[in-house]
Amino acid sequence: MEGNKTVNLILKYIGIDKQTELDTFVNDVSERDFMEFSSREEVKAFFIDYLADFYNNNSRSDIDNIRAYTGIAFRRFNSVLRGVWNYDTNGLLTDEMKNKYLDYADNFSECIERSPTLSSNIKTYRGVSLDSFKDYGISSLEDLKNLENKYYYESGFTSTSLVRDKSFFNRELEYHEFCNIEIEYLIPGESNDGIPLINDDLSYSKVQSEYLINKGSLSKIIDVKVNPDGKLAHMKAVLIPEKMWNIIYNKNDSLDSSKTI
C-alpha cells in the first residue's frame, strides 16, 4: 500500500532520524497509564484549572468564535480544510468564502495553540465511517488492518469525545453516514493540541463532552481490530504533539495541507 500522499510528504520532510524519534515516543506513550472519564462531572472537574489558564490566554472574541464553530459552521470549515466540499450539503463555495473559512480556521487554530499542556495523559474517542480513510486506499473494514503501525494525518479539526459513550461510534448520522469505526486516541500529557468544549461558553452541544483536536494533526495507529461479524472496527492511535514533528511549528507557519499540498 502506497499510503497517503500527505503522510508520505511529512515523513520525507522530517527525515529518518526524526521519524525514529517519533516511533520511540509512540512506543513510550502506548505503555503509559491514561485518564478515562465516565461522566461529564469527571470531565469538568479535571479541566477546571486548564480552562482557567485557557481563558486567560484568549479574548472574549476568541471564545465566542470557538463556540460559533460548534454550531453548523464546523462542517463547512472542515470541508474546506479537507478539500471535500459537498455542494448539495454546503451550497455554493466562492473564492471569497473559501478564504474566509481558511482565515477563521487559522485564527481558531492559534487559539488552540495558546492552550496549556494537559496535566495527565488522557483518552478520547471518535466514531467515523470508511470515508475518513478513502485517501489511504481503504475500501473495507478489513483493509483498515493495513494501517496498523502507520501514520495518519488529519487536515481538518478532529472532533472526539472525552466520555466514550458520547462519541458517534455505532450510530447513524445525518445524510445516512454510519459510524462503524471507533478510534481511541491516546493523548499524551505533553500535548497542547486540543481543547475541551465542555461548557456553554465554548459549545452549543456540551453534552458531547467534546475534545477538539487542532487541524493538521498527526497520529500513529498502533492497533486495529475488526469484530468477528465484520460489521464494526476499533482502532487505537497515539496523537503526536505538533511541536515534536513540525520543525517549523509556530503560530504563523505550520505544515498545512490546504496550503502546501
From TrEMBL:
UniProt-listed PROSITE patterns: TR_MART
GO-annotated cellular components: extracellular region
Domain of life: Bacteria
Domain ADP ribosyltransferase: 52-227
Xref: InterPro entries: ADP-ribosyltransferase
Identification of the protein by name: ADP ribosyltransferase domain-containing protein
Organism, scientific name: Candidatus Onthousia excrementipullorum
Lineage: Bacteria, Bacillati, Bacillota, Bacilli, Candidatus Onthousia
